Model the fold of this input.
Amino acid sequence: MKATTCALALLSCLLFDGSAWAHAHLRAEVPAADGTVGTAPTALSLTFSEGLEIKLSGATLKGSDGNAISTGAPSLSPGDDKLMTVPIKGQLGAGAYTVEWHALSKDGHTTHGTYQFTVGH
Amino acid sequence: MIAPHVALALVRLCFEAAAITAYGVSGFIAGIAPKRLGLALAASSNSLIVAASSLAVLSTIAWLPIEGAMIGESWQSAVDRGTLSTLLCDTAIGKAWLVRLVLSLLLTAALAWRSASIVRLVLSGFLLASLALTGHANMDEGTRGVLHILNDALHVLAGGAWLGSLLVLPGCLARLRDPAFCTEAKTALRRFSTAGHLAVALVIATGIVNTVLVLQRWPTDFTSTYQMLLAAKIALVAGMTGLAIMNRYIFVPRMVTQPDGAIIRIRNGTYAELALGAGVLALVAFLGILDPT
Done:
């Protein structure tokens, strides 16, 4: 009986680990959507409504010519699984940029979207 | 080819139906029916248990590649080794999937023992509760998040007990006419009535808590597909509750004066409840893939 209780308790821990589960919507982003920044950003920061599975989430950055700009692997900020950071390789010149993001929330729902920002002079 | 997210809803529906069948049928046999009647009901519902256990394994296996297809937005991703291994090794979905795979394989292994209803009840109970982890069981964190998951788990367990046990009820009713089982069948029906009241009350109470936690309002805005389907689900559950009340408080008392007619009415009411319950399951499967707004 004791063994059964232990097994049930263990199983409960596996099943109910208290993580958050829902759809991830983009709540805030740096540089801001439709905004203009003076200095070229070195990374994109995207804050979501829910925690992400980072290995299957990410963002691509495109210039106004439609060519993809090289970015590093996306990562979650330590202690906040809702904040995704994508490092930008190299220096962004002045112009308009498009971010295409995709997110997988912890409950297995996918969301995606795009937004633009401009780097000014 | 159907879209991956529709396939995911279908596979979820198969999984729910399988888990609820195994859970409710085993629950009736192990917890409601006296021993001898339990053995007789286990024998007559054996093919149902075999089908439910097999469907639980098959729908679990299909779940992961379909999830992969949904993430990659193409059916090619369903067989993409990179996507699947990342999903399996690096995500909470993969972890929950593995637990489910082990549980459903154990459920199938338990088929070797027809009398292992309690083992089946526990395994399928955990399978069913695991749905709380892949549903909307919370946008909350900390204590509130844990309470939300527990509330959702209680909701599916109470609902599964109600719906699943109805599958055995007609068999139990038929044995009222069998002198060898008549007394035990009457005992089972009395216990079923008590447990039924509790299950229905739990379903309604936890359902209200879930709605408040997920939507933070009543589902009355029909421009939202989620709220419309949730309202439809609530209407079906209200219909099931009405049928259960009719069976218990109109036809059961008639069993003294007109036993044959009353038993047929109760049996038909049970079939109607099962049909509405199937509709509830279909709605639940699609609600699970929608964004709760």
